[in-house]
Write a structure and sequence with these properties.
single chain; alpha/beta; Rossmann fold; five-stranded parallel β-sheet; 5 strands; globular; binds shikimate-3-phosphate
């Protein structure tokens, strides 16, 4: 079935929460377009995220992220997946609240770590003890993600399709 969304569905939450995988599936089920703010930044810069962080720094990345988000929020409503830090900036939260419905994909540290531990694509986790870094980020960010309109739990063993259905139900 093809849905006519009035507003974009904006997925927020930590790296490894499944925003891209669930968002892709959700958009397929709803018959709407899927966009991913990280992908758009990478396309525009023609560089990977670690390259952008290394060359231009995190502050530059965050400015690009805000610009991309503002643009994507005003395209035809679909499913929009955001980078894990996007919802942290108050300006981004306001833009998301004004234009869309935010959904926090909530997952605990063990699940997040299991999903990100073998990937080397997150510059913020290039630390001495990345699990501890992830734990600190989760602890600091969870109260902010909790400001999203809806929260859906990402649990071990739940398929991507089931997660997408849970978002629809929410
Ligand atoms: C970040 C998460 C990443 C990416 C960048 C910063 C963060 O996106 O935007 O590495 O601050 O949590 P994912 O959440 O898609 O991994």
């Amino acid at each position: 079935m093809k849905w006519q969304l009035k507003k974009p569905v904006v997925l927020v939450g930590m790296m490894g929460a499944g925003k891209t995988a669930v968002g892709t599936m959700l958009a397929r089920i709803l018959g709407v377009r899927f966009t991913d703010s990280d992908d758009e930044i990478v396309k525009a810069a023609n560089m990977s995220i670690p390259e952008i962080f290394a060359r231009d720094g995190e502050a530059f990345f965050r400015r690009k992220e805000a610009q991309v988000l503002a643009r994507l929020l005003h395209e035809r409503p679909g499913v929009l997946s955001t980078g894990g830090g996007a919802f942290l900036a108050e300006g981004n939260r306001q833009a998301i609240a004004a234009a869309g419905v935010s959904v926090w994909l909530r997952a605990d540290l063990d699940l997040l770590w299991q999903r990100v531990r073998h990937k080397n694509t997150r510059p913020l986790l290039r630390t001495e003890n990345p699990r501890e870094t992830l734990r600190g980020l989760l602890e600091a960010r969870a109260p902010v993600y909790a400001l999203a309109d809806l929260a859906v739990d990402s649990l071990p063993g739940v398929s991507v399709e089931d997660m997408a259905q849970r978002v629809i139900a929410a």
